[in-house]
Write a structure and sequence with these properties.
Blueprint (H helix, E strand, L loop, with lengths): L8 E8 L3 E10 L2 E11 L8 H8 L7 E5 L5 E7 L4 H14 L8 E10 L5 E9 H13 L4 E6 H12 L8 E7 L4 E7 L2 E8 L3 H6 L2 H20 L5 E8 L7 H9 L3 E3 L6 E3 L17 H8 L11 H54 L1 H20 L6 H11 L6 E9 L4 E8 L2 H12 L4 E6 L4 E2 L5 E9 L7
Parallel strand pairs: 1-4, 3-14, 4-8, 9-12, 12-13
Antiparallel strand pairs: 1-2, 2-3, 5-7, 6-7, 9-10, 10-11, 15-16, 16-19, 17-19, 18-19
Helix pairs in contact: 1-3, 4-8, 6-7, 11-12
Length: 484
C-alpha cells in the first residue's frame, strides 16, 4: 500500500471546457474526503464561460486560492525517451523537442514536462505537455475578470493519476493498469504502473456521442485497442492486467462488457465518487444531463495538490504575478519604513517631553531646596574656616619657632613686633638690624622656611639716629595641598 499523502483543508477546483463548466469543493479532513459542493453548467460552444457566470458560481465557494484543470483534449501530450539522465540536459532536450512536436511557434505555446522515470540504460522517460498559449490565456483572463484569479493550472490526466494513486494503491507486481476516463466530449486513456504514468492518449469519443450514436461504442473500443497496441510496442515487458472505466463511462450501457469482450481483459467500472465519505445531494450526478460528465480529473487534483507537477501558466500571467508580488513587497517595505519613521518620531517626541518634564521636576526640587542648600553652604564654609584655623601650621608657637631659627646672631637683628593674620595666612615682622646686609640675611633665611613663602621687604627700610636700620618684612604661609 502506498502512503496516504492527503493534506487537510479545503480546496476549490475549476475546469472550463468547451462544453461544460465544472466547479467542485473538496474538504480533506482527518476522517476522510468530503465532496462539499458541485456546480455543473452546460456551455454554449461559441460563447464559452463568461466572467459573470463564473463570478456568480464561485461566490458560493470559500475565498482563497482556486486551481484550474485543463481538459486533456486541449493539450498535446508526448512520452519521450531522452538519451540522458542529467536534469539540465533533459531540460534542454525537451525545449528543442517542444518546438518540433507542434505546428505552432514557441511564442504561441506553453510547454511543461515531468520526469516519469528511467527508461533503459542511459535513457529517461519524460512526459511533455504542450498547450496553445491562447487557450490558457483565455481561461486565466476570464477568471481574472470574474475577480477570482487562478493560482495555477494542471492537465486533467494528472488528476486521474492522482485519483488512481488514492483509489488503487499500486502493488509490487510488474503489471500495469489501463484507465479509460470518459467525459462528455472526449475520453482520456492512460496506462499506469507503480504509480507512474507510462502512456496517455486523448480519444475524441465522449459520453454525449456514445449516447446519441450506437456506432460510437465500436469506435471507442477500436481506439482503446489501438492505444493498447501502441503502448505494448513502446513498453516491451510491461503487461496490462486490467482496464478500469471511470467518469461518465460507468453510465454508458454495455460499454464495459464490450471492452472486456474485444480486449480480452478484465474490465471494471469504477465510480470516481466512491473515495468520498460524503457527497452533495444536488446536483444528481448520476442522472441526466450530469451523468455524461466526468469529475475524476478534478477529484484527483483535489486529493493532493502537492503531487501535481505541471504548472501551465502563460508568461504574461507569470510576469503580471511577479510584478504584483514585487509591488506588494515594495508596498510592505514602504509601510515598514513609514511605520519605523513614525515610531522613531513618536519615541523622540516622548523622550523630549519626558526629559522636559524631568528637567521641570529637577528645577522645582532645586527651587524648593534652595534655602536648605544655602544653609548647607554656609555650614560648609564655617567648617572650612574652622578647619583652616585649626591647622597646626597656624599655631603661633610654630610660627615664632620658625622665625627664631631664621634670626642671625643676637644684637644683629632685633624684632619689635610680629603681626599674624590667620584668615589671610600672612605674617608681618618689624624690627631693627645692625646693617642692611643683616636684614637681607633675615629675608633669605625666612625664604628657606617650609612654612613661609613670598618673603620680601616692604621697601620702607630706614636708618635711625642710633645707626640701626628699621625694617618690615612681609610673607605668607606656604599652601600645603590637601592630602585627601
Amino acid at each position: 500500500m502506498s502512503t496516504d499523502r492527503t493534506k487537510h483543508g479545503s480546496v476549490v477546483l475549476v475546469e472550463i471546457g468547451n462544453d461544460w463548466l465544472k466547479v467542485i469543493q473538496v474538504d480533506r479532513g482527518a476522517t476522510g474526503l468530503a465532496l462539499v459542493k458541485v456546480d455543473l453548467e452546460k456551455l454554449d460552444p461559441i460563447k464559452s464561460a463568461s466572467p459573470d457566470l463564473l463570478s456568480r458560481i464561485l461566490r458560493k465557494y470559500p475565498s482563497g486560492s482556486v486551481y484550474g484543470c485543463l481538459p486533456r483534449q486541449l493539450a498535446t501530450v508526448r512520452m519521450l525517451d531522452l538519451p540522458s539522465t542529467d536534469p539540465l540536459e533533459i531540460g534542454d532536450m525537451v525545449e528543442l523537442q517542444a518546438g518540433k512536436l507542434t505546428p505552432y511557434s514557441k511564442e504561441e505555446i506553453v510547454a511543461d514536462y515531468k520526469i516519469v522515470g528511467p527508461s533503459r540504460d542511459g535513457y529517461t522517460k519524460v512526459m511533455l505537455v504542450i498547450v496553445q498559449r491562447s487557450v490558457l490565456r483565455n481561461r486565466f483572463s476570464v477568471m481574472e475578470e470574474a475577480g477570482i484569479p487562478l493560482a495555477t493550472m494542471s492537465i486533467g490526466t494528472e488528476g486521474v493519476l492522482n485519483w488512481m494513486r488514492k483509489a488503487f494503491p499500486s502493488g509490487n507486481g510488474r503489471g500495469a493498469v489501463a484507465v479509460l476516463d470518459v467525459d462528455a466530449a472526449f475520453s482520456d486513456f492512460m496506462v499506469i504502473a507503480q504509480d507512474r504514468l507510462l502512456f496517455t492518449r486523448s480519444i475524441l469519443v465522449g459520453a454525449a456521442t456514445l449516447a446519441a450514436d450506437e456506432g460510437a461504442r465500436d469506435r471507442i473500443v477500436k481506439e482503446v485497442s489501438n492505444a493498447l497496441q501502441t503502448f505494448a510496442s513502446e513498453n516491451s515487458g510491461v503487461k496490462v492486467e486490467r482496464l478500469l472505466v471511470s467518469g461518465a463511462g460507468i453510465n454508458v450501457p454495455g460499454l464495459s462488457p464490450l471492452l472486456s469482450e474485444r480486449q480480452n481483459l478484465p474490465v471494471e467500472p469504477v465510480d470516481g465518487l466512491q473515495i468520498f465519505r460524503k457527497t452533495p445531494s444536488q446536483p444528481a450526478l448520476h442522472q441526466a444531463p450530469y451523468d455524461a460528465v466526468s469529475l475524476t480529473p478534478l477529484i484527483g487534483m483535489a486529493i493532493d495538490l502537492d503531487r501535481l507537477e505541471f504548472r501551465l501558466v502563460p508568461e504574461s500571467v507569470k510576469l503580471r504575478k511577479e510584478l504584483v508580488q514585487k509591488a506588494r513587497s515594495l508596498t510592505v517595505l514602504g509601510c515598514l519604513i513609514i511605520s519605523t519613521l513614525v515610531l522613531l518620531s513618536m519615541w523622540g517626541t516622548l523622550r523630549y517631553f519626558f526629559k522636559r518634564a524631568q528637567l521641570a521636576d529637577i528645577r522645582q526640587d532645586v527651587s524648593a531646596k534652595a534655602d536648605e542648600v544655602r544653609a548647607i553652604n554656609q555650614k560648609l564654609r564655617l567648617v572650612e574656616v574652622v578647619q583652616q584655623r585649626s591647622d597646626p601650621r597656624l599655631a603661633l608657637f610654630n610660627i615664632l619657632s620658625e622665625l627664631r631659627q631664621a634670626l642671625p646672631e643676637p644684637m644683629q637683628i632685633m624684632v619689635d613686633t610680629v603681626e599674624f593674620d590667620g584668615e589671610r595666612g600672612t605674617l608681618q615682622v618689624s624690627g631693627t638690624g645692625a646693617s642692611a646686609g643683616d636684614i637681607g640675611s633675615l629675608v633669605q633665611s625666612l625664604e628657606k622656611s617650609a612654612l613661609l613663602a613670598d618673603v620680601r621687604e616692604d621697601g620702607s627700610t630706614t636708618r635711625e639716629s642710633s645707626g640701626r636700620f628699621r625694617f618690615r618684612v612681609l610673607c605668607r604661609l606656604e599652601e600645603v595641598p590637601d592630602a585627601g
